[in-house]
Amino acid sequence: MIVNSLLIKTLQAATLSGTYLARNMSGVVENTIRNKLQTSLGTKHLEIINESYMHNVPKGAETHFKVVVVSDKFDGLPLIKRHRLVNDILKEELQTGVHALSIVAKTPEQWDSSDKVVESSPNCRGGFGK
Fold first, then answer.
1. pTM of this prediction exceeds 0.85
2. Domain limits at 79?
């Protein structure tokens, strides 16, 4: 009886700590993206938007992101080179689980002169143009 009681308490504690860990581990990929972009680009403004919920993925997935990045390092770079720079910084994440990355890359001057509204992404069409 004592063994069963201890076993039940141990399982309850493990379940609670597992739930606690799962809740606190959400956003790991998002935080990694944030840290890498802030460190590499010295961002003036940065938004990381997890759009995974809009797709057919498990709840809590971190597979589809939109990033809004404002950095002085984009000065003089055409849009394609800005996107390549962001993709290079996040190369590992793009190879290991991030399925889609939408990028808005602006200089501080462009950001300051804009309305600062980020357009919503279109609804998922299932990847097959449905």
1. no
2. 27-112
